[in-house]
Every structure is written in C-alpha cells, then in structure tokens.
Amino acid sequence: MSTSSALSPPLVSPLPALRRAAPVLPVVAVIALLGLPVAAGSDATPADAASGLVVLWAAVRTVRRARRPLTRTAAVVFGLPVVGIAVAAAGAATPGDGITGLARYLQVFVLVPLAVVLLVRDRRDARLVLWSLTGLALWQGALGVHQFLTGTGASYQGAYIRAVGTFGPSDVMGMSTVVAYGLVAATGLALGTPARRQRVMAVGCALALLVPLALSFSRGAWIATVVACGAQLLLAGVRRAAKVFTAVVAASVVLVGGFGVGAAVLQERLTSITQVADTPDQSVVDRYTMWAAASDMWRGHPVTGVGLKAFPAHRDGHASLALSSGSDTEGAGQAFRRQPLLSPHNMYLLILSEQGLLGLLTVAGSWLALLACALPRLRRAGRARDCALAACGLLLWQLVNFLYADIGGPSTVLTAVCFGLVAWWALAPDATTGPAAESGPR
Fold first, then answer.
1. Does pTM surpass 0.85?
2. Tens digit of pLDDT for each residue in 82-128?
3. What is the tally of structural domains in the chain?
4. What is the extent of the structural domain holding 105?
5. pLDDT per residue over 351-383, tens digit each?
6. Residue 41 in domain
7. How far apart are CA 93 and CA 97, in angstroms?
8. Cα gap 374→193, rounded to integer Å
9. What is the CB neighbour count within 10 angstroms for residue 439?
C-alpha cells in the first residue's frame, strides 16, 4: 500500500444517513416545494399534492410495521376535530362545499399532522424538519428583502415594497407566516441545544429572519412572533431572556435607526396596531366588521354554525355598510386585482360561525389539548430540549396568529406540518427518550 493512500482519509458515503432519514424525507419535500412560485388564484399546489403522498406513505409504512401507531391520548386528540368538522360538513349549503371543506380541514388539522407524528421517529428527525423550516424561511425571506430593496414586491401604500416572497400579493400573509415559523424554530434550536455550532447557526438565522419579517408589514405575524419567542425565552430562563431581549432591541435600533431600513413605513405600521378606535385604516375596519358578522352568524346558529365554507354566502346579510367590497392586490409579478373578502381573518371566529360551539370545542379544543400535553414535557426534555422549545413556540405562535388570520393559501400546508411536529412532541411516547431513540430506524 502506498504512503499517500495510507494517509488519505476514508470516504464517507451519504447513503447511510439518507437511509436513516428516509421515513421523514417526504415531510422535508413538502416544505421544500413551498419554495416554488405559485400561480395566482391556484387552489392546488405541488406542496398540497405532496402532502397527500405523505399521508399515503405514512399509512403504508404504519401497516407494514404492524404496530399500534397511536396512544389513546393521541387518538382522542386527533379524533376530536373529526367530529365537529363532519357535523359542519353535513350542514354545508351544497354537497360540493361540504366535501371540499371537509377535505381541507381534515388535511390541515388531522391527516397531515397525524402523518408527521407517524414519520418523525426521534429528535434527529425533528431537528431535520425544524432546520428545513428555517431553510425555507431564509429562502423566502431573502426573496422578500430583494423585493423591498428593488421595488418589485406587492403594492403597499402606492409603492411596490411589501415583501411577499414567491407567494405573491394574492397570499400576502404567506411569506410572513413562513418566515415567522423559521424564526420561532431557529429560536428554539438556539435556546435548547448545548452544541455551540448549532447554537451559533440558529442565532444567526433567527437574527437574519427579523429583517424580512419586518418588511412583510404583517401586524398579526409580528404580534404572534413576539409572544412565541418571548415565551420560549422565558421557558429557557429569565436571565437568558433578559440578555436576548437586550440584543434584539440593539439589533433593531441599528437596522432601523442606523441604516434606516424602512424606518418611516415600519413606524407607521406599528402605530396602526393601536389605532382601532380613533382613526383605523380600511383594513382594520374591514376586519372588525367581518368579526362582528361572524359573531352574528354564530348567534343565529349557536350549536353547529352555518356550515362549512358558508361564511361568504352569509356575510352580506350580517355585515354592516362599513365593509368594503374587497382589498386591492398588485405587484410582485401580478396585475391589479380586486380580492374579495371571503373570511373573517380570525380562525376562532371562522370556526364559530361555520361550525358553531361544537366545532370550536372539538377543533380548537384539540389545539389546547396539544398545549396541555406539550408544556409539561419540557421538564423532562433532556437532550430534546431544543425540539421541545421549538414545538411549544410554534404552537403558541399559531394560537396567537389565529386571532388575526385563518387557513387559506399555499402556506396552509405548512401549518399542517407544524401542527404535526407539535403533536409529535406532545403525544409521541418516545419524543423525550435519550440516545437509544436515535440509534437507527425502528
């Protein structure tokens, strides 16, 4: 044997790592597909199609393993939404609305989350999904910053500066949702890991994502992110929370005050959050008018609501004259379009109006059950503390954001993936296990 060959390092094949991660790679593929552009007005996306394949793959793999896939608690948590959704679908105005509404709700809150629970086996799989979320957020955030700097984003106050990524002005909340998910995931990874390299990378990603989140001008995403990241910091330790808060404030002052990154527009947008009574803008007027309409629908049908996908049909009969005919969307490669207001932009009120108290107790009740199961597990998280903090943060972000948004648009499938990741942490028996769970495929 020659000296050079004896001293050369052995080649490491990536195949064993790919084989070990194979069960969860379909979930990663769904996340990656959300980085592709989406045609305006498209109801089905490649990510939605891939999510169906993920559900099929999880079902086939579970049958082949011939093991009981869920605990009793998990079966109850996933079964609760089915009851309320099915009853509301039966009361839909048309069979078509009932079928499409039933399919969408089951996809987002039952089938895809359940598939993620079955495919994520241990904390290494969970970290792969979390880093995939962060990577997608960095990609969409970079596109959004470029749109702001070059004036090629969605229209905002007459200028094409709103960062929307590949989602376009028709799903103006899409990029802010993706970026916020990535920021919360990165924050959890940074706070919970003892590995210096991962901590440095995660902190860098979280700080970088603050810029596109700000340039999305999404007030609901801002509020939800502050609440979720603040809760993560407090769960990780009060002293650390104080240090990180100081660093974030300093970074914000440098970015906005020092470099003037959208300072005037951001200040106006921040101020508008509190202007709900004195001089609210039309978007705030529309939102509160639709909230009142949704509440009025519920009072007329308190138990089961008006039926799935029936809010638009009942809206005009319950809304005041203050409601506008729609919102104007333009820019980011799309022509001017008048987008109708088809939901109250509040998930809780949407469920209450369309599914009644039964739907609210079963669907939203399953989310609270996840929170009740996820938070106590933090005490025994061990080496999975980073996954635990990220999962709890994602759930808190979603619960707060649902006060200002509802499901709809291409980014909705990512909401389903995040619910699945939370459910894995909250319900999977081996989520808190040690290195034995990471030794290889089960």
1. yes
2. 999 999 999 888 999 999 999 999 999 999 999 999 999 889 999 99
3. 1
4. 70-429
5. 999 999 999 999 999 999 999 999 999 888 888
6. no
7. 7
8. 18
9. 9
